[in-house]
Each structure stands twice: as C-alpha cells, then as structure tokens.
Amino acid sequence: MAEVIEGHGGELALAAARAFGVNEMFTLSGGHVFPLYDAAHKTDFPIYDVRHEQTAVFAAEAVAKLQRRPGLAVLTAGPGVTNGISGLTSAFFNASPVLVLGGRAPAFRWGAGSLQEFDHVPLVAPVTKYAATVGDTDAIAGEVRAALTEALTAHRGPAFLDIPLEVVFSSGEAAAPGEPAVPVLEADPDEVAKAASLLATAQRPVIIAGSDVWGGNAIAELRAAAEALQVPVFTNGMGRGALPPSHPLAFAKARRPALNEADLVCVIGTPLDFRLGFGEFAEARVVHIVDAPSQRATHVEPVVSPAGDLRRILAAIADWPGDRADHTEWISGLRSAEDAGKARDAEAMAAETDLIKPARIYGELRKVLAPDAVTIGDGGDFVSYAGRYLEPAQPGTWLDPGPYGCLGTGMGYAMGARVTYPDRQICVLMGDGAAGFSLMDAESLVRQGLPVVMVVGNNGIWGLEKHPMQAMYGYDVAADLQPGLRYDDVVKALGGAGETVEKAAEIGPALERAFAAGVPYLVNVLTDPGDAYPRSSNLA
C-alpha cells in the first residue's frame, strides 16, 4: 500500500517541496500563510523574513541560481503577491526555478470583499511556467509537485500557486512525495552534428556561453567542447567563470575584434538579445544552441539551432570525430588583443584622481575578493563597470539582474547567497540609484545574522539616464539624486556598519575592514558624476 502523508495544507505543501531539495523559506509575515510557517516551525525548516516581498522572491531566486534547485518564497495574499511580481518576472527572464506560494482570500466567500481578495493567477501567468489556484487540501502536495516539475523542466523558470485561506488551514492527506522526475529533452542528433561540424571547420569561430550553461550543469562539457575543437570562449551572465581567466581559451577583453572578425559565432545557453547585438555579428554565421525549442531566436535565422539538454549537446560536440580547422593563428591574434585590453584596464583600475573613477573601485576589489567570493551586481552604470573589470575565477559566483534589468535585487540576492554559502565572501555592488530600492532589507540581514559587504558607487545621479539625455536634448530632468548621501549611515541605523570613502587611496583599507567586520557593512564610495560607462545607447 502506498505511503500516505497527513496534515494541514502547510504541512502537505512543505513535504512536497522538501522532496525537490527545498531547504528554506523566504517570506514577509502574513496571516493567509500561517500554516506554512507552522509546518516550517515544527520541523526546524529555516524561515528568513524580509521587509519587502520582492526581496523574498529575489532571495529565493539567488538560491535557485546558485544551487540549481528550487528556491521557495511564501507571500501573503493581495499586495504580498503583487509586491513580488518583479521578482517573479526576473526569475522568468533568468530561467530560475523559483516557487512562489501565495495566500488567497477564502473561496467560500469569494466576491464578498474579503481582506486582500484578488485573483493573482491571471496577473502572474504571463511570467511563470505554471500558475494555478489549489482548490482542495488533498490536492496541495500534488500541485506543488507538478509546479516544481515544470519549474525544473527546460527551459526552466518560476511557478506560482495560491491557496485559499480555508484550503490551506484545513487538514488533508496525499501520497508521500517520491523522487522528482524531471524530463530531459534530447536534441536532434543531425542538428547537433551540423553545429559541431560548423564549429570545428570554421576558420575564425567564437563561442559565447551564457547562464543556461551554468543552470543546466554543463560547465564541464562546455570546457571539453572548447578544448576539443580549440575555440575561444566569451561568457555572459552566470556563464561567467565557466573557464577560469587563466585558461588559454578564456577571453573577455577581445570581444569587439572577435565578433567583428569571426566567421562563425556559436551562442550557447543565452538569448540573442540586446546584450549580444540582437545576434547580428558582422559577416559571421550564427549557431544558436538552446535548452528548449522555445528559446530559439525568431528575429534572426541561425544556420542551425539544436535544442535540448546542454550537457548532452556539448558532450557530443566535444566528441566530434570529423574534420577540423587549425585555429592557432586566430587564437593567437585574439590573445594579443586580450592582453592589450587587460593592460588598458590595469591602468584605469589604478587611476589616482581627485574624483574617484569607478574603475579604481574594481581595481581595489580585485585585490581583496577570494576566488570563491560571490559577487552581486545591482545597478546600471556602476554595475556595467563591474562586468568589465571583475573576472569571476569560478563558475556560479556572479549574480546580476539579467536581461530584464530589474533594480532592487541586491539585498535578496545577498540573503540567498549568504544562506547558500555561510563561509564565503558575499559582495553586493550597487549604484546609489539601486540602493534606494532595497537597502531597508539590510535590517533583515542584520537581524538574522547574515553578514555581507555592500559597495555603493555614489555619483549622485541616475548615470544611465542623465548622460544620454544630455546628449540627446542638451538638458536632463529626473536624473539627479542627493550628492554625497550617506548610505553607510542608513545601514548603521539599521544595526550594521559602514563608512564613506572620498579618496582613492582609502578604498582598499575600507574594503578590508568591511570583509573583516562580520556584520552587514556598506562602503559608500563617492565617485565622479562625469564618468559614464561607454556605450552607444542605453536604450537599445
């Protein structure tokens, strides 16, 4: 006879989530979801609470990204759920398997005007892979299992369930959760063979690897394929660090000549979006390798686009037995461009100027960050510099908002990263604009003993807007913040620590104090408002 579990709705939901490796809950307290708290409390299941629901979802997303398993956020009904929608949307764009369990006003009184009565599902359905209301207590465990299976099935993404008040508070029973069964998509072998042949025989090939290579646990296979065919590799998103910076095929600074001169660009596990010039690479042919057919580009026509499990596709490419071109000269030329770019960057990162340049901050950070430090970018202009000057030494150590570009991820990502890695350095990089979105949740970090280092590049403006608006119109509006604002004092008032830095020579010692402090610590660096990250347009 099949084993049966019994309990109230919260106990059934948590039992099903545990079977998928969920080990913690991020939430903001709300009466509609008390049974979930009760289930957690009675089983020593960690609860981390926040000051804004978006932080709970971002924390769950950080766990999902870093650990490649579901993260759980529990939100109360109505505004609790709607406050979390930016986090859900970011998870959708980032292919993060987040489960949001929402409270819901009682079904038996629906339409009478109960507190926070709102039908969430139509609102969240466009930004989730699975969205449903659970109408029966006995169905809760099965619905959680179905939602998590869909969240983990490529192309991965978030799932949402809300549970009416009387359903989650009632008792029921369900079959005991078994091992998760997540389907694996096999790519067309002919398409894989064509991609391998094109990559091997191109004279000037380039690989660009993105977040899905990490999310699909295909880092080793990517390295094997690149090494077998001797193809230079560039990365973005959580693909960063897939090859360590010292690897002879790892490149970052030679991107422009590589993409301008390549005859074949193979993009793996990332969309052909604005970050990649929408897939237009001079005269190069494009191979687009994705984890599911839904991710194939529709605005360009790749010569081939295998869709399926990235580990298997890349393993097959690594084992390609056919002809291959000699890429030695191509790689050598790119290495010269790479070395020249690194020399320019080194000069910028050492700049002694009265007004601190953002590059100098990253030059000092590189000296104190451990190889396994988790670095989190939450901002626009300031974080653009991070993408240029910081080179993750290991995969799975870089978190940024992703292509949706949502500010406010910083404190949630920091919480999820600290929960994941209690003993690593966790460093959040924020523009002063981004700091306004979530800095209050430094209190959540303080209260729950979760130390992180926050570095604010404080130029007193919205850099991505002020400079382009000046260039376009000759003036700017709604683009100024208070110059010299003491964000460190905010964190101090919330129970943490921090300091303001005005001289370049003071940055390094301040960072050393921050990482040694053992509490949430904000280093507020006053930077040059006239220094803008170079780009043709931030509106692309």
TrEMBL record:
Domain Thiamine pyrophosphate enzyme N-terminal TPP-binding, first and last residues per copy: 9-121
Top EC group: transferase
InterPro entries: DHS-like_NAD/FAD-binding_dom, THDP-binding, Thiamin_PyroP_enz_cen_dom, Thiamin_PyroP_enz_TPP-bd_dom, TPP_enz, TPP_enzyme_TPP-bd
Keywords in alphabetical order: Thiamine pyrophosphate, Transferase
Enzyme Commission number(s) from the entry: 2.2.1.6
Gene Ontology molecular function: acetolactate synthase activity
Pfam family, one: TPP_enzyme_C
Matching PANTHER family: 2-HYDROXYACYL-COA LYASE 2, THIAMINE PYROPHOSPHATE ENZYMES
Organism: Paractinoplanes lichenicola
Gene3D superfamilies: 3.40.50.970, TPP-binding domain
Domain Thiamine pyrophosphate enzyme TPP-binding, first and last residues per copy: 378-525
Domain of life from the UniProt record: Bacteria
Cofactor (UniProt): thiamine diphosphate
Residue ranges constituting the Thiamine pyrophosphate enzyme central domain according to the UniProt record: 192-317
Protein's name according to its UniProt entry: Acetolactate synthase
UniProt record similarity statement: Belongs to the TPP enzyme family.
